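Continuing from the previous page of notes. For each protein in this section, the sequence appears first, followed by its structure tokens. Read the first protein now.
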Amino acid sequence: MLDVRDYLPARRKQTPSGWISFNCPVCQEKRSRGGIKVSDQGWSFHCFNCNYTASFILGRNLSIKARQLLKHFNVPERDIEMLNLESLKHRSIHGMLEDRQRVWNQLAAITFEERDLPPHASLLADEIPYRGYVRSRAVPDDYPIMIQAENDNVHWTRPHVVIPFTYDNSIVGYTCRFLDNRTPKYISETQPGYVFGTDLQHADWTQAIVVEGIFDALCINGLAVMHNDINDAQVRLIRSLGREVTVVPDQDRPGMALVDRAVELGWAVSMPNWPEDVKDVNDAVMRWGRLTTLLTIMQSRETSRIKIELRRKQLIKRFI
């Protein structure tokens, strides 16, 4: 097993509490503000100058930040991969069973309160321009999109559609999407840890596609986390589905943050080679249709950290 202490700078000092301090290799400061604490189960690093933090625990995947730190220590790439492999081998069957039991215990606590829809909300029929807008976003006709026929003095008089949030077929929130594209485009009533689209999943599916936006999820029966991060409660909910997860980030600078989180969680990432004006799943479906979009997503599905990082760097060049 790789001992990270073998790669620390020669100029270092150990404190009575067990921390080893040295010049941080990340920000290149000169006052020994970086420190690492090593135990039999792993290590934890923190720099008080640049606030860079990273940690490693035996039995878990190496995170992106832990890998980057090891590279700053000039640990060879091969040794980093070997450390990750040895760490995963360390997980005993007993440990995995404990993890599974802990997950099931957590899942038992996943609940959401029922919530009311906005006043005067009714199912969308053939009203213009509402129906035209919904169809232009490639939303299936069978999803219960709603409108507000009357002004309630809360959601303004701007034309908008109401998209109910459901969980176990109960209404637990909603979002209003305004049709005029003025700011704000959305206002939402949601609950912590909620993931849109769980009721769109079929029991016999083996794959779950995680996206950022509501319309991205609606047009492919995916799961929307509704921002460019996935919090721990959402992770528990997604894992409760018991299927392989593929994260498809928006192809813009904020979307790249979702890539780091997906890799940290050990999930696959798909960044298809779409044209620059196709920024997300909904754009792709509107251009090529649902089936072709799903095929490009699954064909571009990647689990290799190195290949994911290479593809992300290709996309980042677009934003410079």
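Done with the first. The second protein uses the same format. Note its length before scrolling.
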Amino acid sequence: MPETTLNEVNIYYELKGNLNSNKVIFFLNGVMASTNSWALMLPAYEKAGYKIVLHDFRGQLKSEKPESPWTFQDHIEDIFCLMDFLKIEKASFIGTSYGGEAALCFAVNYPDKCDSIVIIDSVSELNTLLEIAVSSWITAAETGNAEAFFRLLLPWLYSNSYLEKNKTELMERAKLFADLPPDYLKGQIQLYKTFLELDITKKLYQIKAPALVVCGENDILKPAFFSEIISKNIPKSELAILPDCGHVAIFEKYNELNNIIINFFTENGLYCLAEEKNEM
């Protein structure tokens, strides 16, 4: 299992795709997730010839869960150190939810390290409803019942149409949560506490890279107005809304999402196959 010590924390990572490519994408996980959450989306980027970097944030399933609290600054320093460890000078970043928020923080702090950013179902600030919702998740995680914890979060994460089509599968997935390591919920609690400190809207103007901001039309956890705030405050950005889609667009609408991202990459000269054709 590949891992490296960054900032005195063991970070799990994976490399996929064309490892010799100078077009690099970091995929940044949602808060409950691990690297395997990108499985539906990755084939398109592997086929295109990108070098792909996946990792679990500190506190997530396969990375270390430190006793002391951490911040988004710690996350972005972990990413910076991982880039240095892998000898990557610059990359595009695709992040969903918590991962999108980490991508925003990274692009603010290290604008020259970013070819582009894709922000999916994320926020740059909180409102009262979101703060109360996430605080309730902390309370649920503190019970230690991972299966009940997952069931509690389901209505926040998926659209009604997706829940109707995939109810049986999701109930089976809930049962698997009971088999997760005991420290999984411990990590989740601190990740949520870190999220509750997020307030970066006023710094978004510092982002130099082109940005694509995407939100599910039916995302009730982080509704589209949060994405509008992000898009309006990044100088070079565009906004896309996915119809009939909840918070986890990377599951619900991965084909549509990939099409939007690949068009964005192509328009900004970052799509591998498009570049190869231009060179022929």
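What the second structure shows: The two ends are 39 Å apart (CA to CA). The CA atoms of residues 217 and 243 lie 5 Å apart. We return to this in next week's lecture.
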